[in-house]
Each structure stands twice: as structure tokens, then as C-alpha cells.
Amino acid sequence: MIAPRTELSVTPVLLDQSARPTARSRPSRLSPVRRLAWIAVTCIAGGAAVKYSAPISVNPPLALEPASAPWARAPQSVGEFGKPRFERGWVSPEAQLAHVHCSMVSALPSGDLLALWYGGSREGAADVAVFTSRMTAGTKTWGPPVKVLDRSSVEGELGRRIKKIGNTVIFPDRTGRLWMVYASVSLGGWSGCALNIKSSPDAGLTWGPSRRLTLNAFFNMSTLVRNKPIYAADGRIGLPVYHEMATKFPQILWFQPGPDGTVEDYKVRNLGASKGLIQPVLVALGGDQVLMMLRDTSSQRALRTSLSTDNGWTWPDPTPISLPNPDAPVDALRLADGRILLAYNHASSGRESLGLSLSSDEGRTWKKHSVMERETEKEFSYPQLTQGPGGMIHLTYTWKRERIGHIAFNLAWLDQYRELAGGLLPP
Amino acid sequence: MNPAWLPPSDALAVFAAVWLMLLGFGGRFMPLPASVALRLAVAAAAAGVMLVPIKELQLWNWVFSYYPNPSLPILGLLIAQRSPRFLGVTIFQSADWWATWIFGAVVGSLVYLQPLIFGRGFDFHYWGWHSNYAAAALTLTAIMFLARGNRFGVLLVAALVAFALGALESTNCWDYVVDPIYWLASVVVIVRRGAIAGWARRQAKLSQTAA
User: Fold this and answer.
1) Assuming Cys at both sites, which of A25, A71, A303, B176 could form a disulfide with A325, CB separation 3.0 to 4.6 Å?
2) Which domains does chain A have, with CATH numbers?
3) Nearest-Cα residue of chain B relative to residue A263
4) Chain A contacts of B160, Cβ < 8 Å?
5) A264-284 residue pLDDT tens
6) Which of A61, A191, A19, A91 is nearest to B87 (CA)?
7) A45-98, pLDDT tens digit by residue?
8) Which of B11, B66, B69 is nearest residue A159 as measured by Cβ atoms?
9) pTM score
């Protein structure tokens, strides 16, 4: 249809050539008057864009909230509650679904705990749904699972085709509104994920509509989430996310919650330049310092850390530490006495053992503490830690991909566990 | 941003992009010159096809699922391509087209290949979140094209207005000036034209040698 041409200054191939003889041709260049008119329009539009597009949060946060949850007031000293406490249970009921995975637990301002996970016939299946369960303050049992998301509901809320849903996190903001960020896939596997956000004004009883976040330039694909955020003193929330397509690297999503569950502004920044590191965990240390820990998908199989000294805005390249990592996510929590508690798989391969380690020097060195689960050729993974208002530390995790396990303990147990029997394995 | 009785502007942008693409396909079967009634009928038919439900989603909605942020330049270039046949007006001349393709190829390569070319420490995409700088840079680029009389500048002005209004799903300025399909089309056009020109030069040289 299009004949080859010998000059470059011809109408390119996509232009409909056959129609040109019938068309009224315009001058090849804008006339001087039209040029001036268009430049004036451009200046007006540019001025309006500069004035009315809100340039908020382009600077680093000046300070972070000291705890992972702003209202969480942990015990002030080790052993404040005296008697060691350790309890083990289940978040998800037995045989709820063929496959359950990827739990999250959040301490709510009311004192309740809200856990969340996804389940279905298998990971990535179209029938996967996201469930929540609540442990009301003062009780020790989890309520029945409540389905809060499934593929069909997400399709309806986002107005587009959704193939499957996956990793989901929940976290409250400083006003007590609960936020949910979840991954959905329209095309391909997990590396085709996009993130969506919604919020709840009543601590997870009801949820508002979803909003798609555009975080990647290339078809908005391949941004995933796993861990809880850090909180800037100015109200911004820094949620660790990561990119998986073509090359894997960590990122942070900064967003500013607006009134009535809206998102006023959001931006995503790359964290460092290393490859193969995903699922960042952020721990606010105080004094403008934030520790990042990363799952290692490379052949080195070592947990990596990086320390930001400007409240999580810029990061040096992560370096490996003494702990192994079998290409599995970890979670960490800063305790009231300044120590950092880490839940992780202590192995270079396999997720057969789930344990705890402690650091007393802001993540530079680690001491193995205890093993929570261990069984050959089984999986205990995707740990999540939170500290409730009462000071109890709660750990949820994937138990053989059959159930979501829950372990609760206090600081006294952390310091005295060696004297306890409790069926625990030695480190 | 949108009145309640209107669909969201991001959905409208996708609808417009797909409708213009279908219009080009339909236009191939129109005789030249076509009557106004026939042109309107083809346009209406293209819009009708957009609304055909496939597995409970309309066609345009499927496209919206995978391609939610069509840039303003791609909408503009589709209009410029369709206008000779449907409106009887040639909007873009050769220089305008070349500006469109070169801009798409260069900016798209910077944005989409940046992590592979420059590493993740150099984050082009993040600059698009800086609304003040992005708007100022877009204004200057548009003025540069318009001062030379190039109509591609008008598409950048449209992108600027859309960015100021937040008309697309994205809040990143890059998504208003380039998108993956526009980028790929630009690269294909430039590579193809370059290959054709190279082939023609080689042929000319061969015929000179033979002579």
C-alpha cells in the first residue's frame, strides 16, 4: 500500500496516503500569528498547571513517627509485664480452603487485632479471595473469616478485567482510618501486578471503593506489596513496595491520605540500585534513621540491609548481613527498648524453619533467638509481626499453606524463653 | 473532576483512542471521496463495536484493562491520521509527523528503558511526579515546537492541559506525553523509514557504480 520512499522528509507510513488528494491541505508550518497565539495558550496552560497541581511531598519527611503504628505504646522497659506469656493458635479455620497464604496482622487503635490473608484453590487462581479476621480487644480468639475482596468485586470496583488478586496489606493511618493496598493482575503472572488502594472508616467493618494506583510507566505493570509502612510526622505514609518485571528492585510508595478516604497525592521512588532484592521491610529507628531489610532472590541467598539517614527518602545500596535468606520474605519490629525483632526463615534454601532473631545495635549484628516452627519438607513462611497496645507481640505466618498460624508473646518471654518448655525448639 | 453524569475522563480517553483506531480500520473500506452520511455511519459503527460485550465487558473496557493511560500525543496523532479521510483536512505535515515520531521514540526510550540503561539509581519516572517541574518542562518543550511552527507543539499543549486537569488515571506527567504503544509505534516508524532510506541510498549508489 505504501510505496518505499527515498527521502526521509515524507509523510510517515501510518498516515493515510490515499485520502490526501481529497483533503484541504494546510500550510506546512503554523503562521506567525498562530504561533504567537498558541504560545500564549501554552503559557496560560503551563501557568495554571504549575499553580493548581499541588506540589506536595516532593521533599523528604522531616521526621518519622517512632513506632510502626503511631498509637502503639509498647511497654517502656523489658519485663514490664513480669510474667512471660506465650500463646499459640490459628487465625484461619481448619480446612477453610485448599490454599491459604500471605497473612498480615495489624494492631488497631481500638485495641483489636485485624488479620488478613488470601486463599483459594491455589496461589494465583481466579477463585482466590482476601479474608479478614478480628481478635477483639480483651479476647484471645479470632473471629470467623470475612471475605473482603475477590476477583469479581475488584472487577466491579475498578471497572476493568481482573485475572487474579494477590498480596494484600492493611495498616491504619494516624487518624485511625484503616487502609488496604492490594495487588491485582489483568495480564500475565505476578510480575504483571498493579496496586490498588481502598480504606475503611470503621476499622475494617466496611470498605470504600478501590482506586487503581499508576506506579509504573510501562502499562502500569509489576508493582507489588508485602509489608507494613512507616509513618512520617507530616501525615505521609511510606509503604514499601517492589518491582519484578525484567529486573527486581525495591521501591517505596509515599502517599498522603486525604479526607474521607481519598488519596491526595502519591509517588513511588526506587530504593537503591541493587538487583534481585524484593519485599523490603522498613523499620523506623529514630533520629531520621530507617532500616531496610530485603528478601534476596539472587544466588547469594543472604539477607540484605540498608540504612537511610533521611527518614527513608534516599538509601545506600543494601549489603548482605550474617543471616541467610532462602528467597523468602521476612518481617521486623522495633521493640520499645530499641532492639529489633526479626521473624524469618533461617536457611539458605527451603522454608522449613521459621524463627526469631534479635538485634541490639540497630541491625548491624543479630543473635538467633528461637525457632517457632520446623518440619522437614513443609513450609512456614511469610511472617508478619505487630505489637498490640497491651505490649503483646503478635506473629502470623503461613503454616504449610494450609492455615494461617498465630503466635503471641511478650517481652518477658523474649528475655526468658530459654527457661520455658513450651514445646519450642532450640535455636 | 468529572460531573457524575459523565464517565471518568480516563475511561473516555481510552474509549476515544480505541474508537479512533477502529475508525482507521473502517476507513479503509470507504470509497473516496465518501459522502458525509457514509462517514458518519462508519464512525457510528466503530463506536457501536466498542460497546460490544465480550465476556461481560465491553470491548473498550477490555482495552482499558490493559492500556489505561493513552497519552495525549497518541490521541492527537490518531486524529491527525483520520482527519484527511473523515474530515477532509490534512492537519499534520511531514515535519509535524517527524517531530511526533522522534519525540515518542526518544522520550519513550528514556522513560521505559531507563532502569536498564541508567540503573535504578537514576529515576526518570520519578521526575514525572514533580508536578511543578514537569508542567514547566512541558510548557517550555511545547513553546519550543510552536515557535518553530511545528504542530506537534499543540499536542503537548493538550497534554499539559490534561495533566493540569488530572484527566488520566495516572498522576505522573510522563504518562500524559508518552505511552508504550506510542513509543513502540514511533520506534517502528523511525526504524522502518531509516531502513527504507538506507536501502534507497544503497540502490542509488549501486546504479551510479553500474553507470
Assistant:
1) A303
2) 17-420 (2.120.10.10)
3) B171
4) 42, 45-46, 49
5) 889 999 887 678 999 999 999
6) A19
7) 888 777 766 555 556 677 777 654 444 544 444 444 578 889 999 999 988 899
8) B11
9) 0.88
